[in-house]
Amino acid sequence: MEFKTFVFYFLSAILVFAGLRVITSRNPVHAALFLVLAFFSAAGVWMLLQAEFLAIALILIYVGAVMVLFLFVVMMLDINLDRLREGFWSYLPLGSIIALLMVAEMALVLGGNYLGLFESSVPQAAADVSNVKAVGRLIFTEYVYPFELASVILLVGIVAAVALTQRGKRKNKSVNPAQQVFVKAADRVRVLQMPAEKRE
Amino acid sequence: MVDALQELLQGLFGSVFPLVWALLKIVLIIAPLLLCVAYLTFWERKVIGWMQVRVGPNRVGPWGLIQPIADGLKLFLKEVVVPTGSDKRVFVIAPMFAFAPALAAWAVVPFNDTLVLANVNASLLYVMAIGSIGVYGIILAGWASNSKYAFLGGMRSAAQMISYEISMGLALVVVLMVSNSLNLGDIVHSQGKGIFADYGLGFLSWNWLPLLPMFAVYLVSIVAETNRAPFDMAEGESEIVGFHCEYSGMAFAVFFLAEYANMILVSTLTALLFLGGWLSPVGFLPDGLLWLFLKIAAVLFFFLWIRATFPRYRYDQIMRLGWKVFIPLCLIWLVVVGCWMMSPLNIWK
């Protein structure tokens, strides 16, 4: 067996295991961490296909930014797994239909070679041309309008997020020293009781 | 000699030789790096001592030189307390998450024209991607400790790191724009060309001068990114509790080592991206490894110097500096440099 083949099967095994653990692990934080592992192995598989830009972008964007925010949210949520499991049987028919559809699609893609769906061969990257340069050239020449459109949509998303969270103009923060010296502790500090929780 | 060794190993290991050869090269990079990390802590204590008119550590060994080994031994022998109710596996994995990226990034760092472990086209992107993983160590350490202080500290440090990663990334975008490459080696080469380099004054054509505002932004951002003073929210013992407050012994030491390994990594990147890497500052001296090491040492000294000089920032001031000053500045300078490159005054051709 070639070394490259071994690496591919190694990464794929980790990828499949991590994907399974994402949906089976009881702790949502662990599930998110297994998703990170899955992204990482997927990036490794892409690297084997010589798609270095895609692989690094996957790690930079999904592992470095998206999953960090995801973890932030998941860690702060109070998730009750038993409550989440209540509707399992009523959702099962719809869920299994979607799962079957996905399996059928996967079979078409993965078995495409046997069914003769891909007549054209997969384009091979030229060894001496930088992957990043090729992607950049295409984006800014052939696909410049879709690319600009996507960036405008992202910009609208940013502005919308800011607009949603902004609560009017902040009041002036300057203080009046004469009033400040007469302040009492009770006006400023509110002591909250937060009893420690036991993990189950 | 290298060829003879290569042949000997090829005979010994046969088909797995490439793997063995790569591992050998990795050890050759990692082992001196770890030694540097140990002696960086020593150097820091000495420098801060001298700045505060003390002598610093001077008891263990000649001039106190064995001190870092003694410190390591002490931490090694201490008990690692795992809090009850903590998530044990994640608690143990978190320090590794913090330390591993600081080592993994060295795979693509070039030391001169030929001396590089993996000469990939997108090496700068790789370094940025690997660098962005380091934040997991902090978040996971905060969460797994099952302590409110550690959790809040983890959130604080992680938010700080993510914020400064953006301004760092934007500063790097400007650098790769002017050098027209994502390869660290090519970026260093592009700094050796220019009007001043032709007169033999190479150090004036390195990126730090034409991109001075970006250099300043990058230099401050790396300090915030590595959680170092004056942005050390994680370690402000007297006023604020950090993410690693539940860690002890060797588990804490790994976080500590990760901080210093990260410092060396970002200093190396600064030397490569802005200070001309292994290029010699003046025409009549040859290029070489020594210059790279001198530049790294200079940036590391900058880290220690400002730690002994500036008082700690308040947290909201750190975030304000990152989001409201650095990011707009970077975005404006990106456009300015873009226009500059398109104008007849372009100096990077």
Give the total of domains of chain A: 3
Mean of all residue-level pLDDT scores of chain A? 84
Compute the number of structural domains of chain B: 2
Radius of gyration of chain A: 26 Å
What class would the helix/strand composition of chain B place it in? mainly alpha
> Average pLDDT across residues of chain B?
89
What is the subunit arrangement here? heterodimer
Terminal-residue CA separation of chain B: 40 Å
Name the helicity range of chain B: 55-70%
Strand content of chain A: under 5%
Q: What proportion strand of chain B?
A: under 5%
Percent helix of chain A, as a range, is over 70%
Can you give keywords for this protein?
heterodimer; A: 200 residues; mainly alpha; Four Helix Bundle (Hemerythrin (Met), subunit A); 3 domains; 0% strand; B: 349 residues; 2 domains; 64% helix; quinone (chain A); transmembrane (chain A); quinone binding (chain A)
In short:
The complex is a heterodimer of chains A (200) and B (349). Chain A is mainly α.
Topology:
The complex is a heterodimer of chains A (200) and B (349).
Chain A: H1 3-24, H2 28-48, H3 52-76, H4 81-84, H5 88-110, H6 112-115, H7 131-141, H8 144-165, H9 177-180, H10 185-188
Helix pairs in contact in A: 1-2, 2-3
Chain B: H1 2-13, H2 17-51, H3 67-77, H4 88-104, H5 123-131, H6 135-144, H7 148-179, H8 184-190, H9 195-198, H10 212-225, H11 249-273, H12 289-309, H13 315-342
EC number (chain A): 7.1.1.-
Enzyme class (chain A): translocase
Catalytic activity (chain A): a quinone + NADH + 5 H(+)(in) = a quinol + NAD(+) + 4 H(+)(out)
